[in-house]
Every structure is written in structure tokens, then in C-alpha cells.
Specification:
The complex is a heterotrimer of chains A (286), B (249) and C (319). Chain B has eight helices and ten strands. Chain B has 249 residues and is α/β, with parallel strands linked by helices. Chain C has one domain. Chains A and C meet through helix 4, helix 9 and helix 11 of A and helix 5, helix 11 and helix 13 of C.
């Protein structure tokens, strides 16, 4: 039993870290635009699919994980410049609906380009085995995943809190009018924040491929979970998104041990309860 | 015996900031009372406490003996309280008549929810609407979209919405703000015509307006009452001159 | 006695009702009318009250599953199952609305989305009741309306009744107060209206009639598919409304017709028809926000005052 619990805990941590990346990406855009990015799931999926293609082209998973998410940034630039930016003057509900339309288009584009059947990506050889942790034996890739995502999260945190650019991004999330008044080109800040959010989603998608495989609907499956993460975290809280992502990942994997069907409903009940009882989320300040 | 508006030791603190500190005054029925003061004096915060947009940290506001502070915004009309807005606040997709309907209907039907009859099925409401529009001089625009009105006319529409329910207390937030000279005159004539029939509390910056129409004036300064009195008393008050009247309003 | 519908609206409705079953199979024409009811109902929230909800599929699904379960598991006739499902949807809308309607726009979107997902996963997991992923099959129509044409006439009658009731609603004092709330909630409250209570009324009306639409839908194809409870269908309903024109009462029906045409006809030629849907949606949001109805009004140079406002309008900043 301890073996099962321990390995499920680690599984939850691994998926939780992926959720954290996705959640932080969504939080950045949410803070900036004040709307949930319905295309976020699609960007996650594109990260995975770009990675798949690069792996097939180069044979290297590491190169793919590096390049894949960068390609997602290109997609994000397209979406932002052609659509979202045009709608800044309009009511922000329209931006939301545009991104919803993009979610549809992105999913169909995946099927058009890569076909409707799912794929799998092999774990890179160096990380293919298992590691003996003493209390349990555990897949090496998932351990590496945890390690890498922790590093990325720390780097992101340092960027946002220790650099000037990061400060501008955080300021823009709090009060964009003020930032614009202070002379910063707020449109460029938006564009790059949107790109960063997309990058994180794409990176999560890339890293997830050996564990979860690829299907065209993976974006639509991830999106609701990313919404739950940011709501429970508190709309606008980056630390909260990290913590909340991990929480949800572990909650899901642990519930699977005892009551598999409940794990899905449970997170939405949690989301609903948070909105009702503590709308600012566990960590939020709004 | 009817009392009018009573502000009783109203304070509003935001953390350490005492935006309004222990402000009191009384307005007898039918009188017009103006609150003035430099920017940041706390007039707007005080006004928001009276209109129930903010809940006072301490103290209370009473009208005709009923406590009106700390209530939900939509409860105030029950006590005969109506307000206008500094930045014209109307219903942009409705016609002028429909705008006035919103408050006139509420006065007529109370909280009753009607779902079957047409909105304009009550002749008494229609009568009230047209009376009110005549009073403010907008009756010929009754069926025009509200957004087609000139700036000054939209402000008059704002007042019409407040007047239609025949309230007892009128709270006017800088009624002439942003208006041209001629529109300011129109608004002032309207307010003067309302004197005596309504109890009125005004926030205003334009000194000539204030001096001409007020029965009494409260001068605020850094959240506190600096002076209170008739226009003549205030004009002569050295503290007020020093703090405020020395500068052009 | 005032006219309920303007002449152009009546013409559109008449053309639709008479023309549809010849452009499509009668059963698909029935589907159009069903989705039309849902879109008009959703517009009560969106165009009239200014509330963007991402949970309308919840009510469509609740209505559909309720009617479907009553018919398949308890043998109850459609003539009873549909009204019961509609009532049930109203109750659910009331309960959910109590929690949702006072929230601001962003939270309102997120919470309606959350409830939608909850109901989706309940439908997905409760396989004994709902059939889970495969949907609920075997929903039989009563013998009286079993063939295509009689069922279509039945749907037309329900459609007309539903539209009349909803039109009476938007023409009523409550309808106008909702529009005032959409335009300026602060002023509406200052004049004495309990904004939260009115929003709840709008939410229940929208949920109830969307539930009615779902209930009829169950009998259209005899199956309740699970994708009609999915969050993406919530977005589709909103887009039907927008596409047809949220500034008009019957505009949304046009959006529903277009959506169904894409789904039923174009899908035969191209599997990727949702791509077209997405592109059309994007174009509507970017360039044609007043929808088909809005464009029609501009083309005919008319600025009539229908219930939805004095001129073709985009969604107001009510949320």
C-alpha cells in the first residue's frame, strides 16, 4: 500500500508540476487581459504536437523540447496581433469569445496537420529506466520532469520578481492603465506576456508527451483544469497557481486510488466552493 | 414634526486615512444645503456615505428619522431619497422617456415584478414621465435615443430620472460639473425651481452657484468640518477665506 | 393591444417556419427551431441583461437528460416529459443562479463554466442514468407525433409559444429593467431596483427555456448526446446568439439556423467543418459584432426601436 501511495504521490507531483506551468501561463494572461484565455489548451496541445514533429525530424527529444514551445510563441504572436489586439478597444467579452473561436480553430488545425489519430512519444533513452528511491521504485523521466519544472518555476519566479521586465509584467497585471501612463508601451508588454503565457503552456505540452501521449483533444481536456487551477489559486496569483496546480495534481492522483470517477467531479466542486466561499482564491488578493 | 436630513458624527476611515472625520450637520425639510471644500476635503466620500455607496466607519445618516446609511443602494428610494451623478449616468440604449420610466415605474409599482403586460401599459406612469420631462424641458425629445441628446441635455435627463419618483430628498453630486456656461445656467434654474419643494443636498465647486442658491453651507477641509453657516457667514469667515476662498474655485 | 412582433420579425419567423423543412429534412428543421429557442433564451441573458454565461449547455443538457430519462426509463410521454423537464431546468437555474448572479463578469463566466463542467462529469459518470459517453438512446416520440412532419408541426407550435412568452417577457416592465441593468447597473440600483433579483429572474428564464429546448431536442433524434452538455456547446450557443445578432430578439434564431446548416450539411462534405465554425465565429467577433440582424438593420437603413434598443448594438458593458 505504501508503494502505491508513494508512487501515486509522485505521479501527482509530476502532473501537478505540469499543471503548475499551465496555470502560471494562464494567470499571466488572465492578469493582463482580465479574461480567461480559452485558447490556452490549444497552445498546450500545439506545444506537444510541435515537439512530436521535431522529435521525428531530429531524433532528439531534448532539441524538440527546446524548439517546440518556441514555435508555440509564433502561434501566440499570430493570435495576439491579428485578433486579441484588434479587440482591445471593444468590450473584453469579445476578446474572450475570439479566444474561444481560436480554441476551435487550433484543435481542427491539429487534426488537419497531424491527423485525427493520437500519437505517442518515446521517453528519451537516458531517462527511460526506473530509479530506486528506497521506499519505492519510480520512473526516471517523471523524476527528471519534477526536477526540471521546479527549476523552470524558480527561474520564472526570479524573472518576475528580480528583473525590471518582470516588474513591468507584474505591474501590468495589477494596473495596466497606470503602466501605460508611466510611459511603457503597454501593447508590447501585453504581446510579450501573452507570448510568455503561451510558452509555458507549450512547454508543459512538450514535457507531457512521454507521459500522456498526444491526442487532438488534449487541449480541450486541459483547458477546464487550467481554469480550476487559477480559480482555486486566486485570479492573478502566480505563486497560488503553482501551489494550486500541485494540489490538484496530487488530489487527482490520490482520489484515483479509492474512487476514480470522483476525481474529475471533485475538482469542479472545489472550484465552485472556492468561488462561493472564498472568491479571492486560496492565495489571491483581489 | 418632520425632521429632514441628519448627518450625525459621520466618519469614514480607510485604514489610517481619515477621509471623513466626525462630520455633522442638519438640513431641515425644504432647505438646500451645499457641501464645499477643496479637492481631497472628503466631500465625495461624505456624499457616498449619505447615498449608501459607502458604509460609515462610525456615525449615521438619518432622513425623517429613519437611518439611511449602511443600507443597500436600492433601498434608499423607499425612504424618498434620490440622487444624481457627477458624471452623467443614464441608460444609453433606451429612449429619453424609457430612461425616466425606470425610476417612475419603480415609484409606481414598488418592488412588484411584472412580466406579462407591456412596459408602457400604465397610463399613470406615462403621465409622470411626461410631467417630469416637461419640468426639465426635455419633453420634445421623449422618443429620441438618449445618446442623441446634447451633453447638457443628458445631464438634465440624469436629473429627470432622479425627479420622476417625486422624492423628498435630492442628493446632487456636482450637478454642473463639466457643463458649459449656458448649460450651467439651465441646471441652476432647474435646481432653484426645486427649492422649497424638496430637501436638497449639493456638492458643488462653482462658488457663484453655491452662494446664490444655498440656504446653508458646510465647508470641509481635510475630512473635517471647517465651518458651517449661511452664505454670508461663510463668505465672511476668516478661516474659510484662508483655507479655500482665497483661491479661485 | 400592441403588436407582439414587428412586421419584419414576423416575416422572418414565417419564412423560417415554412421554408426550413424544404431546405433541410424536417427533422433537421426541427433541430433548428430547437436550437433557436435556446439561442433566443440565452440572449435574454446576453443581449438584454448583458450577462455572458458559459453554462447554457448545462441547462440544455439538464432539460434533454431529464426528458430523455423520463421517456426511456419511466415510459412517460413527451407531452408530459417536456414540461416537467422545463420545470426541472427552472429549479436548477434558480439554485445555481442564487450562487452565480451577483458575481462580476469574470467570476460569473468562471463559475457558470465550473457548474457546466460539474454537470458534464456527472452525466459522463452516471452511466446507468445517462448512458455516459455514449449518450442516452432510445428516446421514443408519442405515436401522435411520431412521423417527421407531425413532429415538425409540434416543434413549430412549441417554438411559436416559447417565442411569444419570451417576447412578452422582454416587452414587460421586467424586460425593460433588465435592459436598464445592462446599460447602467449602478443607476438601476440607485433608482430602487434590486439588481441581483432581476438578474436571477433573467437567469432562470434563460435556463428554463434552454432546458425546454434541450427537452424537445431529446425527441428530435431520439438520443441525448453528451456533447450537448460540453462547455464547447455553451460557447456554440453564445455564438449562435452573436452571429444572428444579440441586439435583436429573433436574430439568434438565424444564428441557430446557420450553425445547424454547417453541422448537418457542410459536415457531409468536410469532416473539419468545426474549423469553418471557428473561423466564422472569429470573423463575427472581429468584424460583425452586431450579427446578421444588425447588418440587416443597417442595410435597410432602419433604426426601429425593438425591445433590444434603439440601434443595432453590440453587447453592452453590463458584466
Amino acid at each position: 500500500m505504501t508503494f502505491l501511495i508513494a508512487s501515486q504521490l509522485l505521479n501527482g507531483l509530476a502532473t501537478g508540476m505540469l499543471y503548475a506551468l499551465v496555470g502560471v501561463g494562464l494567470t499571466l494572461v488572465l492578469g493582463m487581459l482580465n479574461i480567461p484565455n480559452f485558447a490556452h489548451g490549444g497552445l498546450y496541445a500545439f506545444g506537444a504536437y510541435f515537439t512530436y514533429t521535431v522529435v521525428n525530424l531530429t531524433g532528439s527529444f531534448y532539441i524538440a523540447v527546446l524548439i517546440g514551445p518556441l514555435l508555440v510563441i509564433l502561434v501566440a504572436f499570430l493570435i495576439e496581433s491579428q485578433g486579441v489586439r484588434r479587440l482591445y478597444a471593444a468590450h473584453h467579452d469579445y476578446q474572450l469569445l475570439f479566444l474561444f473561436a481560436m480554441a476551435l480553430i487550433l484543435q481542427e488545425a491539429i487534426i488537419l496537420i497531424w491527423g485525427p489519430v493520437g500519437f505517442s512519444v518515446l521517453t528519451p533513452k537516458a531517462l527511460a529506466g526506473v530509479v530506486d528511491l528506497g521506499f519505492t521504485v519510480y520512473p526516471a523521466y517523471r523524476l527528471a520532469l519534477i526536477g526540471i519544472t521546479v527549476l523552470i518555476t524558480v527561474a520564472l519566479w526570479l524573472f518576475l520578481t528580480r528583473t525590471n521586465v518582470g516588474a513591468i509584467v507584474r505591474a501590468g497585471m495589477e494596473n495596466r492603465e497606470m503602466v501605460a501612463v508611466l510611459g511603457t508601451d503597454i501593447n508590447r508588454v501585453f504581446m510579450w506576456t501573452f507570448a510568455l503565457g503561451a510558452y509555458l503552456a507549450g512547454l508543459a505540452g512538450a514535457l507531457a508527451t512521454p507521459i500522456m501521449g498526444l491526442t487532438p483533444s488534449m487541449g480541450a481536456d486541459m483547458l477546464p483544469i487550467s481554469f480550476v487551477i487559477v480559480v482555486i489559486a486566486g485570479l492573478g496569483s502566480i505563486l497560488g497557481a503553482i501551489a494550486s496546480g500541485i494540489l490538484i495534481g496530487i488530489a487527482q492522483s490520490m482520489t484515483t486510488i479509492w474512487w476514480p470517477e470522483a476525481s474529475n467531479i471533485a475538482i469542479y466542486v472545489l472550484m465552485g466552493l472556492t468561488i462561493i466561499l472564498r472568491p479571492q482564491g486560496l492565495f489571491g488578493t483581489r | 414634526m418632520t425632521t429632514g436630513l441628519e448627518c450625525i458624527s459621520v466618519s469614514k476611515h480607510f485604514g489610517a486615512v481619515k477621509a471623513v472625520n466626525d462630520v455633522s450637520f442638519e438640513v431641515p425639510p425644504g432647505a438646500l444645503h451645499t457641501v464645499i471644500g477643496p479637492n481631497g476635503a472628503g466631500k465625495t466620500t461624505l456624499f457616498n456615505c449619505i447615498t449608501s455607496e459607502l458604509k460609515p466607519t462610525s456615525g449615521e445618516v438619518r432622513f425623517e428619522g429613519h437611518v439611511i446609511s449602511g443600507r443597500k443602494t436600492h433601498e434608499l428610494p423607499v425612504f424618498g431619497v434620490a440622487r444624481s451623478f457627477q458624471r452623467t449616468s443614464i441608460f444609453s440604449n433606451l429612449t429619453v422617456a424609457q430612461n425616466v420610466w425606470v425610476s417612475a415605474f419603480r415609484a409606481f409599482a414598488g418592488t412588484r415584478v411584472e412580466v406579462l403586460r407591456p412596459a408602457d401599459a400604465h397610463p399613470e406612469v406615462t403621465e409622470t414621465i411626461y410631467q417630469t420631462l416637461e419640468e426639465v424641458g426635455l419633453d420634445r425629445y421623449a422618443n429620441s435615443p438618449a445618446t442623441e441628446l446634447a451633453h447638457g441635455d443628458q445631464r438634465l435627463l440624469d436629473f429627470a430620472i432622479a425627479l420622476a419618483p417625486k422624492p423628498k430628498l435630492l442628493l446632487l453630486d456636482e450637478p454642473t460639473a463639466g457643463l458649459s456656461r449656458s448649460d450651467t445656467q439651465r441646471v441652476m434654474h432647474l435646481i432653484e425651481s426645486l427649492k422649497g419643494r424638496y430637501t436638497i443636498v449639493l456638492i458643488e465647486h462653482k462658488m457663484d452657484v453655491v452662494m446664490r442658491i444655498s440656504d446653508r453651507i458646510t465647508v470641509m477641509y481635510f475630512g473635517e468640518v471647517l465651518a458651517e453657516g449661511t452664505p454670508q457667514e461663510i463668505r465672511a469667515n476668516p478661516k474659510v477665506r484662508e483655507a479655500y476662498l482665497g483661491r479661485r474655485a | 393591444m400592441q403588436k407582439l412582433f414587428s412586421l419584419p420579425s414576423l416575416i422572418v419567423i414565417a419564412l423560417l417556419i415554412v421554408g426550413l423543412p424544404f431546405v433541410q429534412r424536417p427533422v433537421v428543421a426541427a433541430e433548428v427551431l430547437t436550437l433557436g429557442i435556446a439561442a433566443v433564451a440565452t440572449n435574454l441573458l446576453l443581449g438584454y441583461t448583458g450577462m455572458l454565461s458559459f453554462g447554457q449547455a448545462l441547462f440544455f443538457g439538464v432539460g434533454a437528460y431529464c426528458a430523455g430519462v423520463l421517456a426511456t426509463k419511466y415510459g412517460i410521454s413527451a407531452f408530459l416529459a417536456i414540461p416537467v423537464a422545463m420545470l426541472f431546468s427552472a429549479v436548477i437555474a434558480f439554485l445555481i443562479g442564487l450562487v452565480c448572479v451577483r458575481r462580476s463578469g469574470l467570476y460569473f463566466i468562471m463559475i457558470t463554466f465550473a457548474f457546466n463542467q460539474m454537470v458534464f462529469f456527472i452525466a459522463y459518470s452516471w452511466t446507468t442514468m445517462t448512458g455516459g459517453e455514449d449518450g442516452l438512446p432510445g428516446v421514443r416520440r408519442p405515436p401522435l407525433i411520431d412521423d417527421q412532419w407531425s413532429f415538425y408541426i409540434f416543434t413549430v407550435l412549441v417554438f411559436i409559444c416559447a417565442l411569444c412568452v419570451m417576447k412578452l417577457f422582454v416587452n414587460s416592465p421586467t424586460g425593460r429593467i433588465l435592459q436598464a441593468i445592462r446599460d447602467n447597473p449602478g443607476r438601476a440600483a440607485a433608482t430602487g431596483h434590486d439588481v441581483g433579483r432581476y438578474k436571477l429572474i433573467a437567469f432562470v428564464m434563460a435556463g428554463m427555456f434552454t432546458g425546454l429546448a434541450g427537452a424537445i431536442f431529446a425527441f428530435v433524434f431520439g438520443i441525448v448526446p453528451i456533447d450537448k452538455v460540453d462547455w464547447r456547446f455553451s460557447g456554440d450557443i453564445v455564438f449562435m446568439t452573436l452571429l444572428g445578432g444579440s441586439g435583436s430578439f429573433i436574430g439568434p434564431v438565424i444564428g441557430a439556423a446557420f450553425y445547424t446548416w454547417l453541422q448537418e450539411t457542410v459536415s457531409h462534405y468536410w469532416d473539419r467543418w468545426p474549423m469553418i465554425l471557428g473561423i466564422v465565429f472569429a470573423l463575427v467577433v472581429l468584424f460583425f459584432r452586431t450579427g446578421v440582424a444588425g447588418m440587416a438593420e443597417v442595410l435597410t437603413g432602419k433604426l426601429t426601436q425593438k425591445g433590444a434598443g434603439a440601434k443595432p448594438k453590440e453587447m453592452e458593458a453590463g458584466s
